[in-house]
């Protein structure tokens, strides 16, 4: 019986990895919306807390649609900070002028051309799918697992189980590339490899090393 290496399944995050850093987008959005950055983040946190989750968990599982969530964040801004804000069309304005990370996209294409499974694993609100597809369409991935579609989110163990099964891989044959530390920790706890994304060159180097060191598995006998 011969042995052949099987490349890891590389699952990439979307926001903050295939897009510019989230903190950059927050600053730009708060300026355009004329809302102090600290107030916007705190209002979002308060709305998440009221629903028993974090700032974005309300949207990306989803518990509320985007319009209802925006109204609640506006109310939190007014009630806590006295800020009268218009957050309508939040997703459209959040993604306005936001480019894809062309460098990371090219690195993923290189890994895929070399035989690796490439998946998208994202905590994403349903109303943001069209913006995501405009930036990087489905053809770049072998599979896509988004929180709103599966009813769970990173760093919950279940979403990693689902993604590994969809890739046809064991947990130790999967790697997550994500810019959020708690998601990386969650992936590692689920038995995955995990890379905390800082920039495309750093992440690609770590992924390449993992792909090169992936343990071979028995090939089927003829």
From TrEMBL:
InterPro entries (UniProt xref): ACAD10-like, HAD-like_sf, HAD-SF_hydro_IA, HAD_sf
SUPFAM superfamilies per the UniProt record, alphabetical: HAD-like (SSF56784)
Keyword Hydrolase: yes
Molecular function, one GO term: hydrolase activity
Entry keywords, A to Z: Hydrolase
Presence of keyword Hydrolase: yes
Pfam families reported in the protein's UniProt record: Hydrolase
Protein name, per record: HAD-IA family hydrolase
Organism for this UniProt entry: Streptantibioticus silvisoli
């Amino acid at each position: 019986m011969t042995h052949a290496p099987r490349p890891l399944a590389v699952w990439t995050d979307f926001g903050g990895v295939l897009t510019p850093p989230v903190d950059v987008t927050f600053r730009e959005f708060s300026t355009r919306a004329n809302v102090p950055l600290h107030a916007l983040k705190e209002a979002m946190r308060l709305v998440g807390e009221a629903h028993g989750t974090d700032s974005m968990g309300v949207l990306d599982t989803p518990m509320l649609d985007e319009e209802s969530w925006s109204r609640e964040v506006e109310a939190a801004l007014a009630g806590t900070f006295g800020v009268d804000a218009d957050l309508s069309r939040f997703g459209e304005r959040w993604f306005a002028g936001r480019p894809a990370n062309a460098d990371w996209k090219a690195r993923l294409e290189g890994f895929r051309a070399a035989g690796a499974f490439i998946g998208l694993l994202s905590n994403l609100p349903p109303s943001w799918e069209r913006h995501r597809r405009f930036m990087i369409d489905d053809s770049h991935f072998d599979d896509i697992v988004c929180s709103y579609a599966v009813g769970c989110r990173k760093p919950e163990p279940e979403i990693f189980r689902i993604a590994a099964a969809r890739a046809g891989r064991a947990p130790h044959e999967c790697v997550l590339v994500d810019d959020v530390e708690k998601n990386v920790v969650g992936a590692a706890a689920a038995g995955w490899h995990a890379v905390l994304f800082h920039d495309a060159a750093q992440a690609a180097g770590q992924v390449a090393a993992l792909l090169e060191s992936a343990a071979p598995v028995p090939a089927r006998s003829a």
